[in-house]
Amino acid sequence: MKIQNGFTLLETEKEFKEWLDKQKPTRKINKLQVHHMALPDYETWNGTDKRVYGDNRELGRTMALDSYGKTTWGSSDGYGHYIAQHFNIFPNGKITTGRNLNSTPIGIKGWNANAICIEIYGNFDKGQDAMTEEQKQAVIFVFALLAEKFNLPINSTYIRPHAWFTSGGTYLGDYNKYKSRKTCPGTNFMGFGNTRKAFENNFYPLLKAYKYGSNNTTTTDKTLYVKIKEDINMHSKPDFTSASVIGVIKKGGVYTVVERIERTGTDMYKLKSGVYITASPKYVETFEK
Q: Scanning 111, 162, 194, 231, which has its CA 20 to 30 A from the CA of 174?
C-alpha cells in the first residue's frame, strides 16, 4: 500500500478488502458503474506511462486523471480531488482510489446519484486490448467486494455498464451501437462483451462465484495455466450438472489454475477466479511457468 497526493495504491486483493472494510461512507450507495478507459489503453500503459512514471505508473496516471478532471469539468469531490471515478483497476491487477466515496461520481448521466464509478484501464472493444489475467481477477474481486460491502444484489438493477445508457442519460437496458453513449466497458469486455446477455450469462455469475481469498491460494510449486481449446462451460462448484453452469469461457483464453479436483470420471480445474472447468485435455491444454 502506498499513498500519494491523497490517492491510495492497493496492490493486492487483501489490501483492497482491508482498506474497504475500514471505509464508512455516509452517502447512500446502491449502484456500481462499469467503465473502461478506452484511452489510456495498454499501449499507453506499456509506453507513455512506463516512460513517464516508471515504477509509479498507477499513482502517476491517477494524478494525471485528476488533473484532467480539474481542467475539464472542475467538479471537486469536496476533498481536494477532481477525478471522475472512485476506483481505477490497472493491467497488472493493482487498484488506486479516486474520488472520495462520499462524493457523487461523474460517470453515467442519469445514473450517478448513489453510485460508485469504477474505471478499468484499457480499451476492451473488439480488436483492441485483451485483458490480462491479473486485471480480470481484480475486476472480479473489486466488484464482488463492493457489492458485499454495500449489500447490493448482483444483477442488472444494481450493477450496470455505461453502454446501456444514451448520451442524454436514458436507460436502454442493453448495448445498442446506434443509441448507446459509449461502448464501456468494451464490446469484447473480458472476452464476452458488454451486452445484457453477456453480463447475465458471464459477468454476474463470476461475481456471485467469487470467494475472498481464492486468489491467494495455490496448490502447485509452479504456477499452472490452462489454455481453452474449445468453448466450455464454467461452473460454480466442481460438478458437471446444468444447475452449476454459470457461463461460458471462450476458446483461446488463458487462465490460472489453483487446484485440480479429482472426480469419478473427468476431473475439474478450479481457476483463480473461483470458478470450475473441465480438466479434459480434449478441451483444455495446461502449461507451467
A: 231
* pTM of the predicted protein model: 0.79
Longest CA span, the chain: 62
Task: Give Cα separations from 7 to 4, 86, 259 (angstroms).
Answer: 5, 10, 36
Residues 61 and 153 in one domain: yes
Residue 221's pLDDT is: 46
CATH code (residue 268) = 2.30.30.40
In order, the DSSP letters of 29-94 are: --EEEEEE-SSS-HHHIIIIIHHHHGGGHHHHHHHHHHHHHHHHT----SSS---S-SEEE-TTS-
Q: For the chain, how big is the Rg over CA atoms in Å?
A: 19
Contacting residues for 196 by C-beta, under 8 A, at least 6 apart:
156, 164, 173, 174, 175
DSSP state of 210: -
Residues 227 and 252 in one domain: yes
Counting the structural domains of the chain, the total is: 2
Taking the chain, what is the end-to-end CA distance rounded to the nearest angstrom? 27
Q: Please report the pLDDT score of residue 260 as a whole number.
A: 85
* pLDDT for res 214: 65
Final residue belonging to a domain, choices 183, 209, 235: 209
User: Which residues of the chain are modeled with pLDDT < 70?
Assistant: 214-222, 289
Other CB atoms within 10 Å distance of the CB of residue 90: 24
